[in-house]
Amino acid sequence: ALPLALVTRASTASLQSLTGSGVQEAAEEGGIGRRLQPREILEKIHHYKTGVLFQCPWAVPAIVETDLPPMAADVQDALYRIGMGCQILDDMVDLLTDLREMRHNYVASVIYHQEPPMLRQALQALVAESGPAGGWIIAFPDLAARMKAEARRFLDGGLGDLFAADHQSFVQPAATFIAGRIGVAL
Question: Which long-range contacts (CB under 8 A, 24 or more apart) does 2-10 make?
Fold first, then answer.
């Protein structure tokens, strides 16, 4: 049995590891004031919303275990990258809704800051007509392919580091499975 003080510290660490994600989600409830740059979305929003969230299973072992193996940091990094890839895929699925509700979205930031104004206008038309959630993927296949590739780099990197050398053939099917569960076909 673990001492009560250690269990309390572990529980506190677990809740603290989830807090950043919850705070970030709550901050968007009333909408956002401006569309951040894509890099800012990854570093200031998705870092907390999903990247750190995917690392939270390690909060308790970091308190309870007296000496975590060096590979624990590598596993945490891999989980972080998987989380970031999942969030980009989620942003693809939620793009039109996030635009309607004025929420942070990586794809929206790429469109707003890096794409021609014509693309923004066409996207606003899709938002206004309340078309299907994935309608933008069909309308803008090149952009969708670039977003999938970016998400895939995060997923492949993280999964590649989690799988043993003799199991690397499972990286692509695992990434495809994860993307499918989120709602994006890779």
Answer: 2/64, 6/63, 6/64, 9/63, 10/59, 10/60, 10/63, 10/64
Q: What's this model's pTM, rounded to 2 decimal places?
A: 0.88
Residue 136: CB partners within 8 Å, gap ≥ 6?
95, 96, 123, 126, 143, 144
CA distance 103 to 120: 16
* 21: confidence class by pLDDT, cuts 50, 70, 90: confident
Residue ranges in 56-170 assigned as alpha helix (H) = 59-64, 71-100, 106-114, 117-128, 135-139, 141-162
Measured from the Cβ of residue 90, the count of other Cβ atoms closer than 10 Å reads 21
